[in-house]
Amino acid sequence: MVNIVQQIEQSFILLGAILFKTIFFFLEDLHQSFMVSFLHYAIFIVGFYYFIFADRKSTYRSWFFAFVAFSMSCYFLFNKCILTQIEFFICPQQNKIQETMSYFFGDQTIGNLSSKLVLTSMAIVTGIILLHDP
To answer: For residues 47 and 67, is the Cβ–Cβ distance under 8 A?
Structure first.
């Protein structure tokens, strides 16, 4: 069972690294990692903001909730953030965004309690909002 979970995790990381290295082929590895970090946090910050102010009948809200729930499930299943692992797979050196996050939330990339709390809270809040929509 553990071996299968590790294989799935490694597949996600490898697929993500190939995808982002293809998209950002014109950048050096450290800058590719930086762009993945930027997207990593922008997806959740901008996505949550748009979720709150989007039309209640918008399918975006359901898709964003599914994305957050999937991200939370992956974090609990693998005990680490797949996007962070992709960032370090692309470049093992910390970029400026990772340094900032490490300063405020700690260097721990495996089992980071802050990340689990944020993802769980986002999943609960977005789920409750969707349930209360008319």
So the answer is: yes
Contact 116, 76 (CB under 8 A): yes
Centroid of chain to Cα 17: 13
Using DSSP's 3-state secondary structure scheme, residue 110 falls into strand
* pTM attached to this predicted model: 0.88
User: Residue 74 to residues 8, 14, 42, 88, 89: CA-CA distances in angstroms?
Assistant: 10, 15, 19, 17, 17
Nearest Cα neighbor of 39 from 83, 6, 80 is 83
Tens-place pLDDT, residues 56-107: 888 999 999 999 999 999 999 999 989 999 999 999 999 999 999 888 777 7
- Residue boundaries of the structural domains of the chain: 2-132
Closest C-alpha to 121, from 43, 64, 68, 79? 68
Residue 35: is its pLDDT beyond 90? yes
